[in-house]
Design goal:
The protein has 230 residues and is α/β, with parallel strands linked by helices. It has helices at 3-16, 39-48, 143-154, 225-229; strands at residues 20-26, 29-34, 56-64, 104-112, 117-124, 132-134, 157-159, 188-193, 198-203. It has one domain: Beta Polymerase, domain 2 (2-Layer Sandwich). The protein is built from 4 helices and 9 strands.
């Protein structure tokens, strides 16, 4: 772990205490694991405490861990069960193993202009069937569209969001296209109905098919003189 990350890790531990469920160092940046119940309070402290001062929220990303090799069944301790920091992942060593017990997570990318530091904050959503976490729009207004995107693409609900609706897909879209179990063809298709004079939605008419590569060659192609010459 670099000296800068060691300083940041010490500040996080001192200010946030047990609100940080785990710290990992990978690719030169720290990732702090936070329980869903502590999310909003932790984010407020990350913004306001002088030792941290993360004034900017750069992005909020949804993650679906359903096919991740470390994903287990059921949520435990609000989905957090992470390995301890190896202290060397940022120096080319293997990154810490992540044991994921919840399917969905949200990752927040923060920037401190005061201290010239970056931080990732990851929160695992407790309920796989109905993923819900608190909104941080009132902490960083830039979270507005980012949370809408995570809702649209992953189906994560953000309580307290002022206008949580789809932002990239159509309002009549069914499902959340970045989930690992979302079918490539989708669930519904849209077309113009000349009889009704408007656009309508209907079930997808594309039949699933498996494309198998087909090789066409002569039976004795290897005996051809041109082939032998190379």
């Amino acid at each position: 772990m670099s000296q800068r990350n060691q300083t940041l890790a010490a500040a996080l531990t001192e200010v946030l205490g047990d609100r940080v469920a785990g710290l990992t160092d990978a690719l030169g940046e720290l990732t702090a694991e936070v329980r869903a119940r502590d999310l909003r309070a932790t984010m407020t402290m990350l913004r306001d405490r002088e030792a941290l001062r993360f004034e900017q929220l750069l992005d909020v990303c949804g993650v679906d861990y359903s096919t991740f090799t470390g994903h287990g069944a059921g949520a435990a301790d609000e989905g957090i069960d992470t390995a301890a920091d190896t202290g060397a992942a940022g120096d080319g060593a293997a990154a810490p193993t992540l044991n994921v017990r919840s399917r969905f997570a949200c990752v927040y990318h923060l920037l401190s202009l005061t201290h010239n530091q970056r931080l990732r904050v990851r929160v695992f959503v407790p309920d796989d069937a109905f993923p819900v976490v608190e909104s941080v729009v009132d902490v960083w207004p830039s979270a507005n569209w980012f949370e809408r995107e995570a809702f649209d693409l992953y189906g994560v609900m953000f309580t307290g969001h002022p206008d949580l609706r789809r932002i990239l897909t159509d309002y009549g879209f069914v499902g959340h296209p970045f989930r690992k179990d979302f079918p490539i063809s989708g669930h519904v298709e849209m077309r113009f109905d000349p009889q009704q004079g408007r656009v309508i939605y209907q079930p997808v008419t594309i039949e699933p098919r498996e494309i198998v590569p087909r090789i066409v060659r002569e039976d004795a192609y290897a005996d051809d003189p041109g082939f032998a010459k190379g």
